[in-house]
C-alpha cells in the first residue's frame, strides 16, 4: 500500500487544501505524520538565520535595558500613575522604531511577536498569550513587576522576560534566587547530544535541592524551540520530550513560579509570580544567550525604596526616646546610632573582603607567577656605528684643527698629523677651559667599555679585544674657535642621542592597526581647537588641532603634516571626560594599553583639552569693585564660554558613546567615564599637591602632570598609613595584584578625608588596612614572592590587621607591657590647662569665664580626679576596679599621644621611615 506523508497537526485552510485533504482520506493510501521530520529539518538554523536571531536579540535586550528599565525606575522614583497598557504601547513603539534607542537596524525589517506584557498588583498570567490590562502599575513595598518582550527581525522571533522586585520580603527573594539558579541550569543543559527533556530535569533538580516547597509552583515546561514560529511545538522543553539536541537549534528558555503565597495581607501582594525568559542558541561547546545584555542578576532587578534610613537601622540599635539638651530623640538616633551601625556594617564587610582577598591571593600565588615579566634594566641595543664607509668619503683636508661633520655625524681630530674621524655617538662628554695665559684647552671623553654608566651596546661586545681611546685633549690660542667647536659637538651629540632614543622607543612599540578613515557615508565626529598633552616637539609656534572619531580610532592633527597622532579604539584602556568645574580646562583623556608615539615622545596617556578661561593679569594690581559693570560683564562672558565648551565636549562624548555601543565594539567595553568630584581628596602623589578623584573604575588625577590613573580591578589591597590620634594627615599605599610592580604612594592626605576614603573603598569592595607607621613595601613584597607558602600559612594579609590584635589584648598583661606610665615624664600643669582650655573653646565659644576660673584654680591632679571618679563609679556599680584601671591607662595613652607598638611579625617588622618615593 502506498505511503503518503502529511502534517497532521495543522488544520487545512482554503478550498484547495480542504478538498485535497478530503480526497486523501477517501483513498486507500497509508497516511504517515511527517511533522517531526519537518521540525528536525528546520530546527537547526544556518549562519544567516542565527544572525537574524542575534540581531533580534540585540534589539530586544536593548529595549529592555535602555528603555523599559529606565522607564520603570523613573515612574517609581517620581511616583507616577501609569497603566500597564500605556507601558505596553510605549514599548511597542520603541521596538518598531529602533532609532529611538539608537539601535541601527532597519525599521522595515522589525516587528513584534506579541504586544509587550506588563503585569503587577497580584494579577499575573505567565502565558505568552497574556495581555497588559488597564490597571495602574503597582510598586508599593513587596510588590512584583513582570515584563515580557517579544520581537522579530526578518521574521525570526525572539523573547525575553524579566521580574523586578520592590522591597522584597524573604520569601520573594528566595523564590527569585532559586529561579535564577534553575534558569541557569536549564541553559547550561542545552548541549548537543542531550535530550530535550534533560533541560527541564536540570531545572527541576535545582528547585528540589534548593527549595522543595516550591516544586508544586514550578512551570511544567522550561520553554520551546523558537524561529520563524514563536513556538515550535516539536521542541518543547518538558520532561517527556526525548528529541536529541543539536548545535544550531534556538530555544526560548522560559521558566517561572506561579501562585506563590506570601505572608502579606495586602491582596495585591498576597499572591505573586516570578518569570525569567531568554533566547539561547545552541553551540558546539556551550550555549550562547543572545539576550544577555539585559541583566537578570539579583542586584540589578531588586530595588529598595525605604525612605527613612534610621528606620532601617532602628532594630539593631535600641534607644529610648529621651530628649537631651534640647535635641530630639530622632536627631540623636541619626547622629549617633546610625553612624555607629554604619561603621559596624563597614567593619563586617571588610572582614568578609579580607577572607575573600586572602583566598584569592593564595590561589594566585600557588597557581604561578604573581605578575608579568620584569622588563626593567633591559639593555638598549644600538646599531653599528659607521661614520665613513670609505676613506674617499672623508671631507677634503683643511688645516690641522678640530672639525665637526654634521652630514656624517662625526668629528675629525688631528692626531699625529692625520685627521682621525670619530662617530659622535662614541663621545661621552666635551668640555673647555681657559688658563691665565689665555690658552684654551678642550677635553673630549669617549664611551669606553668597563667604565661605570656606560651602555653595553653591540659595538663593545663585537670588539672586546680592541684598544680604546679614553680621552683626548687639545690646546689652542683661539678661544672663539674652541667655544664654537664645543657648541657644535654638544648640539650634534644631543640630536643624535635624541634620534637614537626615539628609534629605540619606536622599536619597542606594539604594532597598531591602521586607521580606517571614515568615508562619505560615515562622516567623522569632530571636535576642533584642541590642545594636546604631551605636546609636540619643535621650537615653532604651537598650533591647536582637531580630534576626529573615525571607523576604528581617533585622529588628532594640526595644520602641520608632521603633527599627527592616531589612537585606536582597541588600544584604549580607559577614556575620561572631565568638564571644567573648579579647573581651568575641559578635557578628554585616554589611558592606553600599549605605548604610542606622540610626536617624538613615547606615552601611554594622551589628553586633548581646551582652556575655558583666559589668563588675565591686572595692571597695577588694584582691586576692582565687586559692582564694577565691566567686571560683571567679563565674568558673564567667562561663564558663557565655559558652558559653551563643556556643551561641545559633551555632545562629542555622547556621539562617540553611541558609536562605541555598536555590536563591533561590544568586546572592547568602551565608554567615557566621568570623575566624581564630590568623592575627591587632596594629596601629594608625586612632588606637588593635587586633587585625586575616583571614577566608576579608576582613581585618577588628570589635571597636573604626571597623570595618575589607577585601575581599581588591578588593586590587591590598600594600606592607610600614619593613621592615629593627633595626626593632621595620613598616607595611602596601593598594592597591586602584580607583586613585581612598585606600590603607589599617595602622601599627605588630610585626616578629614579619612572617613570618606574608607566609605568609598568599602563600597567599591576594596579591602583596606590601617597602620600607625609607614612600611617598607619592597621588602614585604619580596618576602611574599620568595616564600608564598609561609605567607599563606601565617594568615595572608591579616598581618596588617593590627586593630583586631589591639582590641583583643586591651585587658591582657602583654598589652600593658607595651606601655608603662611610670617611665613617662608627667605633663606639666600648664600644658594640661592649655589643652583643657582648647577643648572647652571648641565645644562652646561662650564659656570664657568658666575656663578662666578653671585655669586659675590650683585644683587636684589628674590622678586624684580619676581616683575620685573611679570610686564614684564603684559605688554606683557601673564599673569594676580593673575596668577603671584600664580606662585610665587608655586615657593616659591618648593624652601622651603614644600608641601601642605593633606586634612583631615576619612581615610587619619591615618598617622604615616614610620615604618620599617608592
UniProtKB/TrEMBL annotation:
Regions of compositional bias (Basic and acidic residues) in chain numbering: 337-363, 857-879
Residue ranges constituting the Histone chaperone RTT106/FACT complex subunit SPT16-like middle domain according to the UniProt record: 681-771
Listed SUPFAM superfamilies: Creatinase/aminopeptidase (SSF55920)
Record's compositionally biased regions (Acidic residues): 828-856
Domain named FACT complex subunit SPT16 middle: residues: 402-556
One Pfam family, short name: SPT16_C
GO cellular component, one term: FACT complex
Gene Ontology terms: biological process: DNA repair; DNA replication; transcription elongation by RNA polymerase II
Cell compartment(s), UniProt: Nucleus; Chromosome
Keyword vocabulary terms for this entry: Chromosome, Coiled coil, DNA damage, DNA repair, DNA replication, Nucleus, Transcription, Transcription regulation
One Gene Ontology molecular-function label: nucleosome binding
Span list, region Disordered: 337-378, 801-918
Family: Belongs to the peptidase M24 family. SPT16 subfamily.
Assembly information from the UniProt record: Component of the FACT complex, a stable heterodimer of SPT16 and SSRP.
Physiological role: Component of the FACT complex, a general chromatin factor that acts to reorganize nucleosomes. The FACT complex is involved in multiple processes that require DNA as a template such as mRNA elongation, DNA replication and DNA repair. During transcription elongation the FACT complex acts as a histone chaperone that both destabilizes and restores nucleosomal structure.
Protein name: FACT complex subunit
Organism: Anisodus acutangulus
